[in-house]
Amino acid sequence: MSRRFLPALLAPSLTLALAWPTAAAAAPSLTLHDDNPNGKSGDWYTGAIPPNASDDKPVLLFVQGLHSDYTTWTADDDYYTAAYNAGYRTAFVQLPDADGAGGSMWTNGSVLADVIKKAANYYHVPQINVIAHSKGGIDTQAALVHYGAHPYVNVVHQLGTPNKGSELADLAYSDWTWWLAEILGMRDDAVYSLQTSYMAQFREQTDSRPEARKAATYMGAATGDDGWFSATWFAHAVLPGSDDGAVSLDSAFGLPYGIRAFTDNGSEKLSHSMLRHASKTWEQVRPKLKLAFAGLSKAGAAEAEWADAGLAEEADQAVRVPARSGDEAAGAIYRGGEVDGVQTERIPLEGGIENVLIDIMVADKATAVELISPSGEVYKPEEGEAVPDELGIFGKAVHRVFSLDKPEKGEWTAKISGERDAYFLLAAVQGGVDLKWRADKQVFKKNDTASLQLATRSGKAKQTSLQQAALRRAGAGKGTALQQLRVHAASDSEMNVRFQVPSEPGVYNLSFEVSGVDESGEAFTRSVNYNFAVTDEDGEIPRPE
Question: Is 224:11 a contact under the CB 8 Å cutoff?
Fold first, then answer.
């Protein structure tokens, strides 16, 4: 896991930033199509017809992401204004998330499929283009492939879509975070469906269908964040490889038949939220917007589109997007629980650590946090601003952050004081013991045997052991430790963990710590969260209820 906490550590891009006009005419108000008298889900909007509109330009339907609504596309620096000034006719959907809790791709996909058909009929066109932010890309796939909307869509352009799921969703159901997740209301159907094992099966269910390839799908991604101590900055410590603070690059480019469109905005690194800002990405999306080719069969439309536009090479590259290595770096220490009074957590840090970022998330701003070094020095945190939840699964949390260069070795103490609150402590470590782990697979039949391999690659560990293993079923409330793990130590620095998966179908998270002593005799610990799923008799993972 390559982590970066300082802007200077970010690798520069080799391309040039795209220019953006300094002024654009304000777009007129949208027109509401109030098709749901009892809520917002299923309602949709159409934009004003631009004076420079043309039948040579496709109709654009915009789909928002996790826990958001249509205003994703109409707020400041918005895509609606950019599309209107460029002469595009537009439509905007309201998904179930607009009424409160987020919907799964199944719930949202059904609603979206209906609106896709309505938008095409409204504008009297055979097909439209879809621009989707974040989870909206998953909802679009469900609409096209599983709910019959594919004949109505020619091009899909994803902006930061978690095609392989998100490790942040996994973490929301872990043993360390369920207290805080419960208070913040993070664990809804949308977050459940974004867990990586659930998405692994969704990919199997979706990518093998012929409908999946009947629209050309472009994938846009990013590798930045919203600044120090923001929710997207914290997420770099959890997500593998490069990421935009909510979705890893591997996941954003994880559609096997998708076309890689862009990463960031030239030399400017973008965050997950910035991907939907017109000044950052519109001019990268616009050249990919196409009309359907008259006289072509729906099945061959995407392939012909790629070839005609000179994109055959890009289409070929789509199947060669490099997959992430099976090895995952365990470079963090997790703690979490309830706060009602004073709660303390011990954090052992070995020598040789270059930097440690400690982010203590709570729900209540009144909850106080401090960090005490092994020698007794007291540190006060920087406070990260809470942001709307769509910017990150833990976005609503209050972030209290400590960043320590070459921290004193020994046992540090975090002190959390509050009432009727909860906390999640994340200590992201750079340097020290290098622990990596690997899982053979994520989706199992009941009573299969799962296997994890763990190894310290730096040669600094003299002794390792696995502690505090807890297996929780996603969506099952507090959950319980369902079984003990059998640990087989292959050497002082390697372990093979085998356990029988539960017989009850569902999505599970196995949360545990690997502790030990390094070559200098100093204690260390690292945390691992393994997300996996168990299928039912029909080979299916239960859908969110």
Answer: no
Given a contact cutoff of 8 angstroms between Cβ atoms, the answer to whether 162 and 245 are in contact is no
Q: Tell me whether strands 153-159 and 410-431 are parallel, antiparallel or unpaired.
A: unpaired
Supply the DSSP symbol for 335.
E
Q: How many Å separate Cα 151 from the centre of its chain?
A: 29
How far out from the chain centre does Cα 129 lie? 24
The Cβ of residue 28 has, within 10 Å, a number of other Cβ atoms equal to 12
Which tokens sit at 184? 């913040």
Q: How far apart are CA 428 and CA 255, in angstroms?
A: 29
Q: Contact 136/98 with Cβ under 8 angstroms?
A: no
The single-letter code of the amino acid at 206 is T
This prediction's pTM: 0.87
Handedness of CA 215, 316, 272, 396 (dihedral sign): positive
CA distance 333 to 472: 19
What beta strand segments (E) does 118-210 contain?
Answer: 128-133, 153-159
> How far apart are alpha carbons 34 and 94 in whole angstroms?
10
Whole-angstrom distance, CA of residue 161 vs CA of residue 403: 30
SS (H, E, C) 284-312: HHHHHCCCCCCCCCHHHHHHHHHHHCCCH
Helical (H) or strand (E) element with 356: strand 353-362
Laid out side by side, the sheet with 523-534 consists of: 443-444, 523-534, 506-518, 461-473
Q: What is the mean pLDDT of each run of 10 residues along the chain (545 residues)?
A: 34 38 76 94 97 94 94 94 97 94 94 98 97 97 98 97 93 83 78 94 95 96 83 78 91 96 95 95 95 47 39 39 55 91 94 91 92 96 61 72 93 96 92 87 92 76 71 66 63 80 91 84 89 94 83
For residues 420 and 426, what is the distance between their CA atoms, to the nearest angstrom? 20
